[in-house]
Design a protein that fits this description.
single chain; alpha+beta; OB fold (Dihydrolipoamide Acetyltransferase, E2P); 6 domains; 5-stranded antiparallel beta sheet; 30 strands; elongated; ribonucleoprotein
């Protein structure tokens, strides 16, 4: 009977054990720590099952595990039994499952989650979100690039989930979104207390090429380089330094974008209010060259007041030259005020006006007829350019190079660098032109030679050459040619060979051509004129005297 009873009890217990709900593999179960040994915690998960978990699975990144006997924990049951008859469990996988459930809810609610950055990977960092590992891109760490993320490592802080995929186990978070949200709230509060025109103190936070960002107590405003001072500022670092406290004026507030424009010069007196009175037209002043461009140079008359010297107003003589070849940056120069436009805040200045016009000076010191000497600077198809005093040039036209040669031929005798003498023919100060003549140096030989010679005059010439078509003769150094037909009244005597080089011959002047610089000469014309004169003096048409008698009488009388 006793044996039957014990068998019934055993059968009842066995049936009870079969009827008990055993946990499914792949689920999270609760357990109790019954021992801690050899870096592992032994956990009783019930159902006559025990398993081991490494202590590191109970620790947060960078921290020590805090676990002791008697603690109740949740673990993930991977397998009910291994080769040693123990349950295969994991605290880390349990935390992960728990975390994913929690994170999915937070993602759906667009809520913040807490985590800690614990590692660095390519392109960013890894973040522990209480059991689940997320990726934090480098661009999402802060609102500005972070050079050293050391102070952020292991620090528990809020993050925003940007994207998550449970099936792939991917989570992407952002710390920047949290900062921007907090910053936006702070900016909105600060901006609500600011008004345009208000003067406030700020701290220079960053300096760029175009200006500086000033922290107004939680919100940044841009102080543009053009609003720093009334004078020209080449770079903000000239007058500002990072960390410096400055007083600025709120120029404009954009309520939508929360952008604030600031100014410093607006808190100072505008020097342009007194420009017209201090710099009357045609007055001269000392200034400093601050900037040089292709079209001119800017000259500072005083801090905040600059004028432009246009390239055309820089030099009387240097045309089509870059301003940088006339003046240099920081050079002190004397300028004249030419025009003031207060509305556009522009002053037109002149550099050359402070010096006398070199063409006027030349006209005073070199009247027409003055002989000058200079170097041939340039040779063109229409003449020579000769360098003169005052860094100006005069031009010798082709027609003023030589008396005896064509201009095109005469110009071939000159080269750049040759020193030449010339006579000043004309000075036009308005057109800035000086006309010179090389051929007039020493006077006009033709005019001197034929000064007393007129058409009809009889002169004595010297035969210099015998040609087939006539003879070449010379009078006072000026050469002329007598054609065969003009050698004699008698056709039989119109033979060039009857003359010899060196003969002196009386001829009659038939033409004086100043342009060609030639005398028209004729022996025939002289003989005819002499015959006519003899007839008038010693005979008449009805006297009956022969021509031979008349000429004989005339010759006898002579």
């Amino acid at each position: 009977m006793a044996q039957n009873a014990s068998m019934e009890e055993f059968e009842a217990l066995l049936n009870e054990s079969f009827e008990m709900d055993t946990p499914e593999e792949g689920s999270v179960v609760k357990g109790k720590v019954i021992a801690v040994e050899a870096g592992q915690a032994i956990i009783d998960v019930g159902y006559k099952m025990e398993g081991r978990v490494d202590l590191k699975e109970f620790a947060n990144p960078g921290e020590q595990a805090e676990i002791s006997v008697g603690d109740e924990v949740e673990v993930f049951l991977r397998a009910a039994e291994n080769a040693r008859g123990e349950a295969v469990i994991s605290r880390e996988m349990a935390r992960r499952e728990e975390a994913w459930d929690r994170l999915e809810k937070a993602y759906a609610d667009d809520a913040r989650v807490e985590g800690a950055i614990f590692g660095r990977v390519k392109g960013g960092f890894t973040v522990d979100l209480g059991g689940a590992v997320a990726f934090l891109p480098g661009s999402q760490v802060d609102v500005r690039p972070v050079r050293d993320a050391g102070p952020l490592m292991g620090l528990k802080q809020p993050f925003q989930i940007l994207k998550m995929d449970r099936r792939r186990g991917n989570i992407v978070v952002s710390r920047r979104a949290i900062l921007e949200e907090s910053r936006a709230e702070q900016r909105a509060e600060v901006i609500s207390n600011l008004e345009e025109g208000q003067a406030v103190d700020g701290v220079v936070k960053n300096i760029t090429e175009y200006g500086a960002f000033v922290d107004l107590g939680g919100v940044d405003g841009l102080l543009h380089v053009t609003d720093m001072a009334w004078r020209r500022v080449n770079h903000p670092s000239e007058i500002l330094s990072i960390g410096e406290t400055v007083k600025v004026q709120v120029i404009k507030i954009n309520k939508e974008t929360h952008r604030i424009s600031l100014g410093m010069k607006q808190l100072q007196e505008d020097p342009w209010d007194l420009v017209a009175a201090k710099y009357p037209l045609e007055s001269t002043h000392q200034g400093r060259v601050t900037n040089i461009t292709d079209y001119g140079a800017f000259v500072e008359l005083e801090p905040g007041v600059e004028g432009l010297v246009h390239v055309s107003e820089m030099s009387w003589t240097k045309k089509n030259v870059h301003p940088g070849k006339i003046v240099s940056t920081s050079q002190e120069v004397e300028v004249m005020v030419l025009e003031i436009d207060g509305a556009k805040r522009r002053v037109s200045l002149g550099l050359k006006q402070t010096m006398r016009n070199p063409w006027e000076v030349f006209a005073e010191t070199h009247p027409e007829g003055t002989v000058v000497e200079g170097e041939v600077k340039n040779i063109t198809e229409f003449g020579l350019f000769v360098g003169l005093d005052g860094d100006i040039d005069g031009m010798v036209h082709l027609s003023d190079i030589s008396w005896d040669e064509r201009g095109e031929d005469a110009i071939q005798n000159y080269r750049k660098g040759d020193m030449v003498q010339a006579v000043v023919s004309e000075v036009d100060t308005d057109k800035e032109r000086i006309s010179l003549s090389i051929k007039n140096v020493g006077g006009d030989k033709f005019a001197d030679a034929v000064g007393g010679v007129k058409r009809g005059s009889v002169i004595t010439v010297n035969v210099t050459s015998i040609e087939d078509g006539g003879i070449e003769v010379e009078y006072e150094g000026m050469k002329s040619f007598i054609r065969r037909s003009d050698l004699s009244r008698d056709r039989a005597e119109q033979r060039p060979e009857r003359f010899s080089v060196g003969d002196h011959v009386d001829v009659r002047v038939t033409n004086v051509d100043s342009k060609t610089r030639r005398l028209g000469l004729s022996i025939k014309a002289r003989e005819i004129a002499e015959e006519k004169e003899a007839v008038e003096q010693y005979g008449s048409s009805d006297s009956g005297a022969s021509l031979g008698d008349i000429l004989g009488a005339a010759l006898k009388n002579d």
